[in-house]
Fold this protein.
Amino acid sequence: MASAQQQPPEIAVNDLTYSFPDNRTGVRGVSLRVPPRSRTLLIGANGAGKTTLLRLLAGKRLAPAGSISVSGVDPFKDGLEGVTYLGLEWVLNPIVRTDIGVGELLRSVGGDAFPARRDELVAVLDVDVAWRMHAVSDGERRRVQLAMGLVRPWSVLLLDEITVDLDVLSRAEFLAWLKRETDLRDCTVVYATHILDNLAGWPTHLVHMHLGTIREWGPAQDFLDRAAAAAAPGTGIGNSRLGELVLGWLRADLRDRGPRNQAKMGTEGLTYSQGGLGGYGLEDASKAK
């Protein structure tokens, strides 16, 4: 039988429900398939469940038996080699803020074993191997994280808001590199982000999450074609078409969810009034009586 590493880098999720130890539900009834060599954008408002889903796919949390398959195996039980998860918490590690050199860090993760990939990533991310980690910016520290995390060839890459600190050029170069990777190698990317600039033509698939569930998922072009057919003439061209699609999804999510505090506060606390940021202000209910 073929080993796990030889299986196509696809992701299958079947009726996945996961609750935290305090009984909060992280995701509920999630089912989807991410095909090999795809680039999937995971879209949703803050708290939609994107990070929870990514961490489950990475095997960092135990999912119910049979609910997740990554390259043909359970990522938690089998610890599949080749699955790489990169999130925001890395830069908070005190070790990566000490007086340590970038060259040392790259060697510590096997950079010398993959010199061509190491040098390519250093160039793409514009990393200076002479940097000392206590003396770099957050954006530069993020570039080092990406170089370290990706220097070993991966089959499934899970990215959680990882480009938030990058400047526009660095982010564009990095995303172009990821596209080349999936074009040239048998690998798959799932990328959760709120930043949609310069993503026209990048995603092959979209997954729309809302309150721990998946509202819709499928080939990106299908969604864009439907959005284009429904749009007014002359609107949403090129990159903005994806942006308008996602904005529409998030607006509908907000309408369906409703205000966060209205039901909780009632007439005794704060009430919403027109005005203020985003069309809503806050006033003391006791003064409104």
Notes: The chain has two domains: 4-82+154-258, 263-289. The longest strand covers residues 25-34.
